[in-house]
Each structure stands twice: as structure tokens, then as C-alpha cells.
Specification:
- It contains no helices and twelve strands.
- It is mostly beta strands.
- It has a single domain, classed as Trefoil (Acidic Fibroblast Growth Factor, subunit A), CATH 2.80.10.50.
- The strands form three sheets. Strands 1, 2, 3, 4, 5 and 12 form a six-stranded antiparallel sheet that branches. A four-stranded antiparallel sheet has the order 8-9-10-11, with no helix packed on it. A two-stranded antiparallel sheet has the order 6-7.
- A hairpin with a 6-residue loop joins strand 10 and strand 11.
């Protein structure tokens, strides 16, 4: 997974995680024409540091992360603690993206209105990683 570029898709709502000016939102994946180049705002480079995954937006180079209040963004240009995640494979080749909150994994979930992400302890959005090849 590390060193590969992906679309990160909310399986249930068929929306892709997108970054504009460091802010996250979800856009309908049906809007993507896979026969044409896909905007870097939709693309995420997976990195690895100290056993944790990082997701760097290709267009803006910010890593997916959160602040002290657990608001999610992609503004940091370094893969540090708040930009570190694990992925937990679930049924059907889908994944939870998880962040450590104290000593517990919390799942990253898509907001119903598409306005970004939030962390929840139980349940969570199932994500699909669609690898992009240049």
C-alpha cells in the first residue's frame, strides 16, 4: 500500500475523499471520467512512517491529519503523529481508516453532508482504496 497513489472512496455513499485548500470534503465518484486524467485533489499518496500509514494529497502535498479538537484536514506537509493512521481490513476488501485516540483506535467516518470527516469509536465508514497507475 505504501508508495502507491489511491482514490479513497466512501463505499456506502460512493463518494471520494477530496482536498481543496487543506479542507476535506467528499464528492460523488460518478463525476470521475476514468478515461481522462484525474485531478490531484482526488488523489492520495500512501506513505509509511514508524509502522503508521500517511495519506498525502497529490495536488496540495498536505497530509491527512487532525488537530487537538479532532477536526480533520490535509494541511501539514509532514507525516507526524496526528497524520498517522492504521488501516484495518474488513469484509469485502474494504477498510476502516483508524487513528489512535489515547490508546484506542477510532474510525475515520465521512460526514453525511459530505463536509469532511469525523472520528467515531464504534462502527465507521468503510473505505475502498482504488489504486491509480500512471
Amino acid at each position: 500500500m505504501a508508495d502507491s497513489t489511491f482514490l479513497i472512496i466512501d463505499k456506502s455513499q460512493h463518494r471520494a475523499l477530496v482536498c481543496h485548500n487543506g479542507h476535506l470534503h467528499l464528492e460523488d465518484i460518478d463525476a470521475v471520467n476514468f478515461d481522462k486524467p484525474i485531478s490531484g485533489h482526488w488523489q492520495w499518496l500512501c506513505t509509511e512512517r514508524n509502522g503508521f500509514k500517511g495519506f498525502q494529497n497529490v495536488a496540495e502535498l498536505g497530509f491527512l491529519g487532525h488537530d487537538i479538537w479532532w477536526d480533520f484536514y490535509a494541511k501539514s506537509h509532514r507525516h507526524e503523529g496526528w497524520e498517522s493512521f492504521t488501516v484495518n481490513r474488513r469484509e469485502g476488501n474494504y477498510y476502516w481508516i483508524q487513528a489512535l485516540k489515547w490508546w484506542t483506535h477510532w474510525q475515520l467516518s465521512a460526514r453525511a453532508d459530505g463536509g469532511g470527516l469525523f472520528a467515531e469509536r464504534d462502527g465507521g465508514t468503510l473505505w475502498e482504496f482504488v489504486e491509480l497507475h500512471s
